[in-house]
Amino acid sequence: MAAAVVAVPDDLADVPRAGPSTPPAPAPAPTAPFADGRGDTLAVRTFVDEDTDLAHITRLCEEELSEPYNVYTFRYFLSEWPHLTFFVYPTPADATPIATIICKQDTHRERTNRGYIGMLSVQRGWRRRGIARRLVELAIAEMEARGAHEIVLETEYDNEPSLALYERLGFMREKRLHRFYSNGKDAFRLILPLASYPGTESEEEADRGRWLVAQGPDAVSELDYILAGPQDDAVPDMTQGWPDVSRLTLVPPRPTRPDYIM
């Protein structure tokens, strides 16, 4: 039996139909060309769609990263945060990217807006030209503009170039994650507290203290409070004699079992 054809009145033709829908992704931040360490002007853009970009992401990550990722991992990031994936090209006319960074941003423990750098890959022949730093700076700026309080990532414990890059940008080593990668290597989790860190009375003191240390000497009075604990009239002021916060050094964290972000 042939299916019946139901005519739709003209005045109802444009009425939206009920059904599943996907919220539109946030518009990407404008990007601009930048000069690399050799003076060449490189082009930057954000993710367009899977047909255009997924094969390039897979290639860059397989060639340059030690950790294997499957297509579902990439789709997890790209489906929700396409605006947090950036590509670098030798020229605006090039169709093949030489570097990429892939990130996400969501709520951590129901109180902190946390950005996360998942993958960063620069083609071998284009390294040591400031491209990785530029991508990280773009990602941080975009996540901070969208309300991030902190940025976290993991990198291999012995990847000295990566550790040096992130520490120059202000990241701190939060903990060592044993056998974090599939090749059996340990990782360091790094964290960058941003100026928008909320800091409320309900925060854990360790989180608040960590952020205060990152802010430097201007935060000394609040840091003294965290170190000494709350005071009252019956207890003498225990903050007297604490060293200047600018002299405090961060002690590498003790080895702990990993608690994965994802």
TrEMBL record:
Keyword Transferase appears in the UniProt entry = yes
* Biased segments, Pro residues type: 21-31
**Which residues does UniProt call coiled coil?**
none
Q: Does the keyword section mention Transferase?
A: yes
UniProt domain N-acetyltransferase: residue ranges: 42-195
A GO molecular function assigned to this protein is: protein N-terminal-methionine acetyltransferase activity
Q: What PROSITE patterns does this protein map onto?
A: GNAT
Q: What is this protein called?
A: N-alpha-acetyltransferase 30
Q: Which organism is it from?
A: Vanrija albida
Name of the encoding gene: naa30
